[in-house]
Specification:
The chain is globular and about 55 Å long. 43% of the residues are buried. The protein is mostly beta strands. The protein is built from five helices and 20 strands.
């Protein structure tokens, strides 16, 4: 069974990193796993904790238009170099939490994405070094206030609201080359988004190398690798679920305010 690394909060408010067990118990680690955390004697039973986002990054570096067909649906060509932007870590929420719909926006979109978790401090790394710096993978939803993105001409406000980065539910170490990413809305059987992760223009190791040439990436940092075609609006009360083969599913609802 693939190891699933989690971050949890107990009923007594203690926060731990751990390994999810087949019985949904959690074997507690003594440190974040990318900092060589080791299994302790403490194991949490399934009903004694809640899942948190699986890491607390110092920054979230996101990549725009990294799938050619998505760039086309946005009315542009795919960029010749990675198009980068930052999301604040205050945007992160875990699996199952609510996405808040800003009152100043009239359109809020889902964007299902593969997320990379960095395992070591890295700066100006080549492709081989960058590949080794990738500690694992999880799922993200790069929630976007689309009307504000178009209005502002840049993306910080549109993508930076609190709750605009669902992340999780856990991290795995390796991902199959042909893993499929799909995004579902409510109970629809047909996905709104569906792509193989290798369809992205710039690979995970290239992104890490490229970004590390600009800024230092720290252990636990997150890179969002871009979304495939099929983005669309969410309404209050909707539930959006992003599934990546080999990882699992990340499901969040849009809060009714």
């Amino acid at each position: 069974m693939t190891k699933r690394y989690v971050r949890v909060k107990t009923n007594s408010e203690s926060v731990y990193y751990g390994l999810l067990q087949p019985n949904r118990g959690v074997a507690v680690l003594d440190a974040p796993p990318w900092l060589n955390g080791q299994v302790t004697d403490l194991e949490l039973e399934a009903d004694t904790y809640q899942l948190l986002a699986p890491c607390v990054p110092s920054k979230i570096v996101a990549v725009g238009k990294n799938y050619v067909k998505h760039a086309a649906e946005m009315g542009t060509e795919a960029p010749k170099e990675p198009l980068l932007f930052l999301k604040p870590n205050t945007a992160i929420i875990p699996d199952g939490a609510g996405i808040r719909y800003p009152q100043i926006s009239k359109r809020v979109d889902y964007e299902g994405e593969l997320a990379i978790v960095i395992g070591e401090r890295c700066y100006q790394q080549n492709l081989e070094q960058a590949s080794k710096a990738i500690w694992g993978y999880t799922i993200a939803n790069d929630v976007t206030a689309r009307d504000l993105q178009k209005k502002d001409g840049q993306w910080t406000r549109a993508k930076g609201f609190d709750t605009f980065c669902p992340l999780g539910p856990w991290i795995i170490r390796e991902l199959a080359t042909e893993a499929t990413l799909e995004t579902f809305l409510n109970s629809e059987a047909k996905p709104r988004q569906s792509a193989i992760v290798t369809e992205m223009k710039f690979s995970p190791e290239f992104l890490v190398s490229y970004i590390s040439g600009i800024m230092t990436l720290m252990p636990g940092d997150v890179i969002l690798t871009g979304t495939p075609q099929g983005i669309g609006a969410m309404q209050k009360g909707d539930r959006v679920t992003v599934e990546i083969e080999g990882i699992g599913s990340l499901s969040n609802y849009v809060e009714i305010t």
